[in-house]
Specification:
Blueprint: H1 7-23, H2 26-34, H3 41-50, H4 68-81, H5 87-101, H6 104-115, E1 121-124, E2 140-144, E3 147-158, E4 165-173, E5 179-188, E6 194-200, E7 206-218, H7 230-265, E8 267-268, E9 271-272, H8 277-302, H9 308-337, H10 348-360, H11 365-375
Parallel strand pairs: 1-4, 2-4
Antiparallel strand pairs: 2-3, 3-7, 4-5, 6-7, 8-9
């Protein structure tokens, strides 16, 4: 298997890394953290001008038709700069759900708006009692003469405060009031009966919890038809985990680079820290974990078009392994910097927090070890 990047992919990596290194300074991240959106709308428009928002969208809908490898290249660069723009929620998840489940009319109306940067999306699926089980959804949707009526609660909706439309999952109630198929609905951010409780995310960006009480929607708010959307949700979440893995690799590589540079200039007893053999061994272990994580992220991206069991095992294997590697690299980086590693004077603490947040998104390492085993016919 030839894993060499094409000329177009190398150009994408170089341009993304250059843009991120020039734009995402410590001052810029502080300004973004104080913005009510949690990111810069101006930078988001630049993403659109660069073609990054159109990257995974099909050409017939105004996109560039890129694949998971290109998304991984972009997300790794985003990890290096701790990018807080809602690329994961809007482009990786939102656009993919519309492409997978939406009708042709919905795709024609929504996907070009995502590509040009005029539409932010969020995906409201997680619930407090679900414990990362994608099939566990208590929110309900009832058919009415005017359309649909939604009730339920959702937690940790990424970038829900900025979204113009929120894709909400709910069980369609049957005639006997029993919960039926799992479907997706497009809910406007200002819909009556929708309440949002916004909060900052660990490591940058924002999320919110949602309460839906008698939210009335028109008939065309249903994404696609009334067929069960669980398989599409699983596929898109696997895609999101592969993208998050690439972002984590970018964060880990930055921590390794900064720690290596610090140990070269920080002296103890008249010698650089890097002259100590024990320190060299720890740096070598960090480098090995970075390379392992990069390999797992690339494998997850390459397996996204495989059959569901193989795809799920690759995604869960990557999420579990990268989560373990990320925690090791983050902890070693903080320890080797000493007390400086947790001060605001350095960015190490911010990168450390983002890696902690990565380990909890869509389930931690323990959850995905179990899922990986279950998909292989075993139990843990």
């Amino acid at each position: 298997m030839d894993l060499t990047l094409s000329d177009e992919q190398r150009l994408l990596r170089e341009s993304a890394e250059r843009f991120v290194s020039e734009t995402y300074t410590a001052d810029h991240r502080r300004r973004s953290a104080n913005d009510p959106l949690g990111f810069s709308a101006k930078i988001w428009k630049q993403f659109a001008d660069l073609g990054w928002l159109a990257l995974p969208i099909a050409e017939e809908h105004g996109g560039l038709g890129g694949g998971a490898v290109e998304i991984g290249i972009l997300m790794e660069a985003f990890g290096r700069g701790l990018v807080s723009e809602p690329y994961l929620s809007t482009v990786v998840i939102g656009a993919a759900l519309i492409a997978e489940c939406g009708s042709e009319a919905q795709q024609q109306a929504l996907l070009p708006a995502i590509a040009d940067g005029s539409l932010y999306l969020a995906f409201a699926h997680s619930e407090r009692a679900a414990r990362f089980d994608l099939a566990e959804v208590a929110a309900t949707a009832r058919k009415t003469p005017e359309g649909w009526r939604l009730d339920g609660s959702k937690t940790a909706v990424l970038d829900g405060n900025a979204a113009g439309q929120i894709i909400v999952s709910a069980r369609v109630a049957n005639d006997d009031r029993a919960a039926g198929k799992l479907c997706l609905f497009l809910v406007p951010a200002d819909a009556p009966g929708l309440t949002k409780r916004d909060f900052p995310r660990l490591g940058g960006g924002r999320a919110c919890n949602l309460e839906l009480r008698d939210v009335s929607l028109p008939t065309d708010a249903l994404l696609g038809d009334v067929s069960d959307a669980l398989s599409a949700i699983e596929a898109v979440v696997d895609r999101a985990m592969a993208a998050l893995g690439a972002e984590a690799v970018g964060i880990m590589q930055t921590l390794l680079d900064q720690t290596l540079e610090y140990t070269k200039i920080r002296k103890q007893f008249g010698r650089p820290l890097s002259a100590n053999q024990v320190i060299r061994h720890r740096l070598a272990d960090m480098a090995m974990n970075c390379d392992e994580a990069r390999s797992m992220a690339l494998r997850a991206a390459l397996m996204l078009d495989a059959e569901p069991v193989a795809r799920g095992r690759a995604a869960s294997g990557a999420k579990a392994k990268i989560g373990k590697c990320a925690r090791f690299v983050a902890e070693q980086s903080v320890q080797l910097h000493g007390a400086m590693g947790v001060t605001e004077e350095l960015d190490i603490g911010s990168y450390f927090k983002r890696l902690l947040a990565f380990d909890t998104l869509f389930g931690g390492s323990a959850h995905h070890y179990r899922r990986h085993a279950a998909l292989g016919g075993r139990t843990v």
